Amino acid sequence: MYLLLFKIITLNLHAAKLMDLIYWREMEKTGIVFTGLVIGLLCMFQYSTISVVSNFCLTVMCFTFPVRLLFKALELLHFRNVVHPFNSYLEYDLSLTDEQTVRHVETIVLMAATAITEMKHLLFVGSIYDSIKFIVLMYLLTYVGVRCNGLTLMIAGVISVFSLPLFYRQHQEKIDKLVTKFRTSVNKIKDTFQLLLQNIKSARASAPTSGPKAKPKTK
Protein backbone atom coordinates (compact mmCIF):
# COMPACT_ATOMS: atom_id res chain seq x y z
CA MET A 1 0.00 0.00 0.00
CA TYR A 2 2.74 2.44 0.91
CA LEU A 3 4.56 1.56 -2.32
CA LEU A 4 1.46 2.49 -4.31
CA LEU A 5 1.06 5.78 -2.51
CA PHE A 6 4.78 6.51 -2.87
CA LYS A 7 4.56 5.90 -6.61
CA ILE A 8 1.55 8.21 -6.88
CA ILE A 9 3.34 10.93 -4.96
CA THR A 10 6.65 10.68 -6.82
CA LEU A 11 5.27 10.31 -10.33
CA ASN A 12 2.12 12.41 -10.34
CA LEU A 13 2.63 15.24 -7.90
CA HIS A 14 4.77 18.26 -8.59
CA ALA A 15 7.03 19.78 -5.96
CA ALA A 16 4.44 22.40 -5.01
CA LYS A 17 1.74 19.79 -4.48
CA LEU A 18 4.12 17.67 -2.45
CA MET A 19 4.84 20.66 -0.22
CA ASP A 20 1.10 21.20 0.13
CA LEU A 21 0.78 17.64 1.42
CA ILE A 22 3.67 17.92 3.84
CA TYR A 23 2.55 21.28 5.25
CA TRP A 24 -1.12 20.20 5.53
CA ARG A 25 -2.37 22.93 3.20
CA GLU A 26 -4.96 20.53 1.81
CA MET A 27 -6.28 18.75 4.88
CA GLU A 28 -8.33 16.10 3.06
CA LYS A 29 -5.58 14.93 0.70
CA THR A 30 -2.91 15.02 3.40
CA GLY A 31 -5.17 13.13 5.80
CA ILE A 32 -5.84 10.41 3.22
CA VAL A 33 -2.17 9.97 2.28
CA PHE A 34 -0.90 10.13 5.86
CA THR A 35 -3.57 7.76 7.23
CA GLY A 36 -3.08 5.32 4.36
CA LEU A 37 0.67 5.19 4.87
CA VAL A 38 0.48 4.71 8.63
CA ILE A 39 -2.30 2.11 8.49
CA GLY A 40 -0.52 0.20 5.71
CA LEU A 41 2.72 0.07 7.68
CA LEU A 42 0.93 -0.91 10.89
CA CYS A 43 -0.83 -3.76 9.09
CA MET A 44 2.54 -5.14 8.04
CA PHE A 45 3.37 -5.80 11.68
CA GLN A 46 0.71 -8.52 11.70
CA TYR A 47 0.44 -9.55 8.05
CA SER A 48 2.76 -10.04 5.09
CA THR A 49 3.17 -7.49 2.32
CA ILE A 50 1.23 -9.70 -0.12
CA SER A 51 -1.71 -9.94 2.29
CA VAL A 52 -1.76 -6.20 2.89
CA VAL A 53 -1.65 -5.35 -0.82
CA SER A 54 -4.27 -7.93 -1.79
CA ASN A 55 -6.65 -6.88 1.00
CA PHE A 56 -6.17 -3.22 0.07
CA CYS A 57 -7.08 -3.97 -3.56
CA LEU A 58 -10.13 -5.98 -2.46
CA THR A 59 -11.26 -3.14 -0.19
CA VAL A 60 -11.02 -0.65 -3.03
CA MET A 61 -12.89 -3.02 -5.35
CA CYS A 62 -15.67 -3.44 -2.80
CA PHE A 63 -16.40 0.24 -3.35
CA THR A 64 -15.58 0.79 -7.01
CA PHE A 65 -17.25 -2.32 -8.46
CA PRO A 66 -20.75 -1.74 -6.95
CA VAL A 67 -20.59 1.93 -7.92
CA ARG A 68 -19.70 0.98 -11.49
CA LEU A 69 -22.59 -1.54 -11.62
CA LEU A 70 -24.97 1.08 -10.24
CA PHE A 71 -24.04 3.61 -12.90
CA LYS A 72 -24.31 0.93 -15.58
CA ALA A 73 -27.78 -0.02 -14.35
CA LEU A 74 -28.86 3.62 -14.40
CA GLU A 75 -27.59 3.90 -17.94
CA LEU A 76 -29.60 0.84 -19.04
CA LEU A 77 -32.79 1.90 -17.25
CA HIS A 78 -32.80 5.45 -18.52
CA PHE A 79 -31.51 4.50 -21.98
CA ARG A 80 -29.03 7.34 -22.02
CA ASN A 81 -25.30 7.69 -21.61
CA VAL A 82 -24.07 8.04 -18.07
CA VAL A 83 -20.59 9.35 -17.41
CA HIS A 84 -18.22 6.77 -15.98
CA PRO A 85 -17.91 7.47 -12.22
CA PHE A 86 -14.13 7.04 -12.28
CA ASN A 87 -13.49 8.56 -15.67
CA SER A 88 -11.15 11.21 -14.26
CA TYR A 89 -8.90 8.51 -12.79
CA LEU A 90 -8.98 6.41 -15.96
CA GLU A 91 -8.00 9.33 -18.18
CA TYR A 92 -5.26 10.60 -15.89
CA ASP A 93 -2.02 10.46 -17.84
CA LEU A 94 0.69 8.51 -16.00
CA SER A 95 3.08 8.21 -18.91
CA LEU A 96 6.48 9.86 -18.97
CA THR A 97 8.11 11.47 -21.95
CA ASP A 98 11.55 10.39 -23.12
CA GLU A 99 13.07 13.54 -21.66
CA GLN A 100 11.45 12.96 -18.27
CA THR A 101 12.56 9.32 -18.26
CA VAL A 102 16.16 10.26 -19.05
CA ARG A 103 16.12 12.96 -16.38
CA HIS A 104 14.82 10.57 -13.73
CA VAL A 105 17.36 7.89 -14.69
CA GLU A 106 20.19 10.42 -14.58
CA THR A 107 19.05 11.58 -11.15
CA ILE A 108 18.96 8.01 -9.82
CA VAL A 109 22.40 7.19 -11.26
CA LEU A 110 23.85 10.41 -9.83
CA MET A 111 22.41 9.70 -6.38
CA ALA A 112 23.74 6.12 -6.45
CA ALA A 113 27.22 7.26 -7.54
CA THR A 114 27.27 9.95 -4.85
CA ALA A 115 26.22 7.46 -2.18
CA ILE A 116 28.91 4.96 -3.24
CA THR A 117 31.58 7.67 -3.27
CA GLU A 118 30.55 8.87 0.19
CA MET A 119 30.57 5.32 1.58
CA LYS A 120 34.07 4.75 0.22
CA HIS A 121 35.16 8.02 1.79
CA LEU A 122 33.78 6.92 5.16
CA LEU A 123 34.75 3.24 5.17
CA PHE A 124 38.30 3.77 3.98
CA VAL A 125 38.86 6.77 6.28
CA GLY A 126 39.21 9.53 3.73
CA SER A 127 38.68 11.96 6.61
CA ILE A 128 39.35 10.94 10.21
CA TYR A 129 36.73 13.33 11.59
CA ASP A 130 33.98 12.14 9.19
CA SER A 131 34.86 8.49 9.83
CA ILE A 132 34.65 9.00 13.60
CA LYS A 133 31.17 10.50 13.19
CA PHE A 134 30.20 7.54 11.00
CA ILE A 135 31.51 5.05 13.59
CA VAL A 136 29.51 6.77 16.35
CA LEU A 137 26.38 6.77 14.19
CA MET A 138 26.71 3.08 13.33
CA TYR A 139 27.33 2.24 16.98
CA LEU A 140 24.17 4.08 18.02
CA LEU A 141 22.22 2.35 15.26
CA THR A 142 23.14 -1.04 16.75
CA TYR A 143 21.11 -0.08 19.84
CA VAL A 144 18.29 1.21 17.62
CA GLY A 145 18.24 -2.12 15.78
CA VAL A 146 17.86 -4.00 19.06
CA ARG A 147 14.90 -1.88 20.15
CA CYS A 148 12.98 -1.64 16.87
CA ASN A 149 12.88 -2.96 13.32
CA GLY A 150 12.68 -1.42 9.86
CA LEU A 151 8.90 -0.99 9.90
CA THR A 152 9.09 0.97 13.14
CA LEU A 153 11.68 3.28 11.60
CA MET A 154 9.54 3.69 8.48
CA ILE A 155 6.49 4.62 10.56
CA ALA A 156 8.59 7.09 12.53
CA GLY A 157 9.91 8.48 9.25
CA VAL A 158 6.41 8.96 7.81
CA ILE A 159 5.22 10.69 10.98
CA SER A 160 8.32 12.89 10.95
CA VAL A 161 7.82 13.90 7.30
CA PHE A 162 4.25 15.01 8.00
CA SER A 163 4.97 16.70 11.34
CA LEU A 164 8.52 18.08 11.55
CA PRO A 165 8.35 20.50 8.56
CA LEU A 166 5.14 22.01 9.92
CA PHE A 167 6.62 22.19 13.43
CA TYR A 168 9.75 23.86 12.03
CA ARG A 169 7.71 26.47 10.16
CA GLN A 170 5.75 27.33 13.30
CA HIS A 171 8.89 27.61 15.50
CA GLN A 172 11.49 28.53 12.89
CA GLU A 173 13.14 31.36 14.81
CA LYS A 174 13.74 29.38 18.00
CA ILE A 175 14.95 26.29 16.12
CA ASP A 176 17.36 28.35 13.99
CA LYS A 177 18.93 29.82 17.13
CA LEU A 178 19.38 26.37 18.68
CA VAL A 179 20.84 24.97 15.45
CA THR A 180 23.27 27.91 15.21
CA LYS A 181 24.48 27.32 18.77
CA PHE A 182 24.86 23.60 18.11
CA ARG A 183 26.82 24.18 14.90
CA THR A 184 29.08 26.65 16.71
CA SER A 185 29.83 24.07 19.41
CA VAL A 186 30.48 21.35 16.83
CA ASN A 187 32.79 23.63 14.84
CA LYS A 188 34.74 24.46 18.01
CA ILE A 189 35.19 20.77 18.78
CA LYS A 190 36.17 20.10 15.17
CA ASP A 191 38.72 22.96 15.20
CA THR A 192 40.16 21.71 18.49
CA PHE A 193 40.50 18.19 17.13
CA GLN A 194 42.17 19.40 13.92
CA LEU A 195 44.52 21.68 15.89
CA LEU A 196 45.49 18.73 18.08
CA LEU A 197 46.29 16.63 15.01
CA GLN A 198 48.35 19.44 13.52
CA ASN A 199 50.32 19.82 16.76
CA ILE A 200 51.03 16.10 16.84
CA LYS A 201 52.20 16.14 13.22
CA SER A 202 54.38 19.22 13.76
CA ALA A 203 55.86 17.70 16.94
CA ARG A 204 56.81 14.55 15.06
CA ALA A 205 58.28 16.54 12.20
CA SER A 206 60.38 18.77 14.47
CA ALA A 207 61.64 15.95 16.72
CA PRO A 208 65.39 15.24 16.13
CA THR A 209 66.17 11.90 14.62
CA SER A 210 68.37 9.94 16.97
CA GLY A 211 70.75 7.68 15.05
CA PRO A 212 73.31 5.19 16.41
CA LYS A 213 76.34 6.85 17.97
CA ALA A 214 79.67 6.32 16.24
CA LYS A 215 82.10 4.23 18.25
CA PRO A 216 85.52 5.78 18.91
CA LYS A 217 88.33 4.29 16.89
CA THR A 218 90.84 2.24 18.86
CA LYS A 219 94.46 2.05 17.87
Question: Which key phrases capture this entry?
Answer:
mainly alpha; disordered N terminus; 219 residues
Helix and strand arrangement:
Blueprint: H1 2-12, H2 15-22, H3 27-46, H4 49-78, H5 87-90, H6 98-123, H7 128-147, H8 150-170, H9 172-206
Helix pairs in contact: 3-8
Describe this structure in words.
The chain is mainly alpha-helical and 219 residues long. It is 80% helix and 0% strand. The chain is built from nine helices and no strands. The protein has helices spanning 2-12, 15-22, 27-46, 49-78, 87-90, 98-123, 128-147, 150-170, 172-206. The protein is elongated and about 100 Å long.
Tell me the quaternary state.
Answer: single chain
Rounded Rg: 30 Å
Shape: elongated
Distance N to C terminus: 96 Å
The count of β-strands is 0
**Which blocks of ≥5 consecutive residues have pLDDT under 50?**
1-13
Series of H and E elements: HHHHHHHHH
**Arithmetic mean pLDDT:** 80
Helical region count?
9
| Percent of residues in beta strands | under 5%
Structural class: mainly alpha
Biggest sheet record = none
- As a percent range, the share of helical residues equals over 70%
Can you give me a brief rundown of this structure?
The protein is 80% helix and 0% strand.
